[in-house]
């Protein structure tokens, strides 16, 4: 009956009849006491249904402004305050949880008043219960299953309380209890409990740091995000400090990262089948995000650049050491900044949160270093620091683009979606790119060199066509081919960690090396539109707009094409060298076998930087067309200006070579 009353589909006349029946029932019998007595029944299903009925009945009383039964309030207060002696606390927690969920789901405008009336009698008692629950000595407990059950129920209630603080303007102490005593919850992760319990707790703390608690409850008709309260900054800093302190005490070593393979129909693997255990990527992502986000929050209130560098070095070293055994191939032979793309490859929202946090750390450290700007050597040491500890924003962004194949439609999807923080991250990065374009192009050059070396290693050229060269000579020749950037190797310290010495091949009659990647070719999917047009006329208009946009790009492309054609004669016509995806790779023609393979084609014009600019141009065109048709969800004028400015940055870089 209560469900019918709360349903929007029920006729108003029928709702009134149901209300009358429920009110008569409340007056005629002590129904809440009878339902609480059922909690002692050995039938678990009956206990569950009794708790659910009681929760809906209490919510009905709150909604109709009927005073809650004193007997039920006293029952809950007694069970919460007497924990762990009283075993009925789970049903109290479950009832409280259901009531708050119903408040969130309701469409009425008095949610804040209803929740305030409900939480008032339990504010102090819940703090007592919180202290009792998390101060238990888990190892000395005989029945650990009951404690785990209580913890899971209390964690769900705690999440709802914090969510009500975010989405409803209320300020009870029980809503801040996690931030006032964060070590209590963090200690549970170090207890010898099952892996799923640790996973629940670490994901919960991650949500709190990202301020995303209760998002699943407030989807659709849920309440809007309220302005942060006066204690928010203090509480977030306290939680971040507690996380970093726990990591310093060995939190990561207590995490169970080895995942268990899923088995259809059971949890055991047949003896004849080989069992391959992989890492638990959920734990890896959550732990990584805990550290990087906590560092960002802490550094916001830190005034010393040296203190930031010391903490960053300490915690990022520990994080990269923690991740290293679980990432194959290991990060040791790659750029350490790749860790974000490797860890968060399956979770876009977390990956962008981690990228945004690392960018925030970089910008904070940049501002601090500018106040103590010194010699060029100090700047190079700082650049070395950003690469060694995996937070260089240019590397992180380029790895992101490589993962999506430089597909502008994926970036467009991120910008349109409200499920990630990509818009905020992208705008901040483009602003950084305006000021720090030189570093971006230097890093692009090394990406191109590394990509070329990997291609040469993969192709497996014949030993008769290989000239033995030392690693140092190879590095010098490659960097010399990229231009007169003599200190580029020093500014990109992970160059020395590349995968071993490079044997320099010569061109044969049947070369194995293809230059499709270096030619800046985007995947076919990049040209596809995300918009379903109402008619074929609209589609034809877009084709015309696309042709117009491509014609504007001709001047930018001609210089790169000419340089590439002069160096590597492909025997193909100009159409095959256009910006469109090609049906076959560009393969160099026969060359003099006595002349070693060269990169005089200036990779910077047809490599990573060129593909990045092309991706930005395609994205700019797509946003412009959508905004012109009033199909873009927000005003993107400022974003279009930032994207347009990347062209001038690229042109300036090309002119300086």
TrEMBL record:
<feature type="domain" description="Protein Lines N-terminal">
    <location>
        <begin position="95"/>
        <end position="444"/>
    </location>
</feature>
<feature type="region of interest" description="Disordered">
    <location>
        <begin position="520"/>
        <end position="589"/>
    </location>
</feature>
<dbReference type="Pfam" id="PF14695">
    <property type="entry name" value="LINES_C"/>
</dbReference>
<protein>
    <submittedName>
        <fullName>Protein Lines homolog 1 isoform X2</fullName>
    </submittedName>
</protein>
<feature type="compositionally biased region" description="Acidic residues">
    <location>
        <begin position="534"/>
        <end position="543"/>
    </location>
</feature>
<dbReference type="InterPro" id="IPR029415">
    <property type="entry name" value="Lines_C"/>
</dbReference>
<feature type="compositionally biased region" description="Polar residues">
    <location>
        <begin position="546"/>
        <end position="558"/>
    </location>
</feature>
<dbReference type="Pfam" id="PF14694">
    <property type="entry name" value="LINES_N"/>
</dbReference>
<dbReference type="InterPro" id="IPR024875">
    <property type="entry name" value="Protein_Lines"/>
</dbReference>
<feature type="compositionally biased region" description="Basic and acidic residues">
    <location>
        <begin position="559"/>
        <end position="578"/>
    </location>
</feature>
<dbReference type="InterPro" id="IPR032794">
    <property type="entry name" value="LINES_N"/>
</dbReference>
<feature type="domain" description="Protein Lines C-terminal">
    <location>
        <begin position="612"/>
        <end position="648"/>
    </location>
</feature>
